[in-house]
Amino acid sequence: MTKHVHVVSPDxxxxxxxxxxxxxxxxxRLEPANGLFMAESHQVIGRALAAGYPVRSVLTTARWLPxxxxxxxxxxxxxxxxxxxxxxxxxxxxxxxxxLAAMQRRPLPSPAxxxxxxxxxxxxxxxxxxxxxxxxxxxxxxxxxxAVLVDPTCADPLYRRSVRVSMGTVFAVxxxxxxxxxxxxxxxxxxxxxxxxxxxxxxAIDLSDYARSAPERLVLALGTEGDGLSGSAVAAADVSxxxxxxxxxxxLNVGAAAAVACYALRQAAGRP
Length: 272
Description:
Strand 6 (about 120-125), helix 6 and strand 7 (about 145-150) form a beta-alpha-beta unit. Helix 6 packs parallel to helix 11 (about 255-270). The chain folds into two domains: about 5-105, CATH 3.30.1330.30; about 110-270, SPOUT methyltransferase, trefoil knot domain (Alpha/beta knot). The chain is of the alpha/beta class and about 270 residues long. It contains eleven helices and twelve strands.
């Protein structure tokens, strides 16, 4: 039976995993170093459990205990309950999605393992906004792409906001972080992939035109929110493609651009 512990003080060391969740700089250092990530809401926690991620503990309030019980947590998990104000003092914000779970990270797979059997892959370079990272994962999952690769500077896909925006699809999409950059693009080419750089440059090929004859195994590379893909990444790609824009708008947000491009390119892959 799952152990229940009621917490009365925000300084209780047993809930240290949940402390200062709004301190992005601290959490970005703390969570990977401690093999930890946060899943927020019952739906997201359930998806993390279904994907096989071990749960360390859950933090909730008495009101949400019945819903937490429905998650079928393993016997070794601890469920911490606390009053609303105590939870807010622990986390640094008003938790209104019912529950938080401290989950155990798993070792990242190798790029070769992620790419095995994949045909359509999204690659992110320097995307530092966690909301955008989560949105890209949701598009990848919902629009039939197979995997995600992130460069060394990209935001953590398992950061709380990324996980929440992805609605837990980050647990279902194979992904890993490339350690060689931009040399890793050559590794992808040697693995049999064509690398397409998504860029607003006017000389790039129209996405709809490229999608008609896109190769079977394709990596779609997208860059940071401000400047887009770096010059070295564009130079290392096999082809540059663009989403044509109207009304003087130069480009879409990277999350929106990923959705548009994934939809267009899945047609070429023969996917519904």
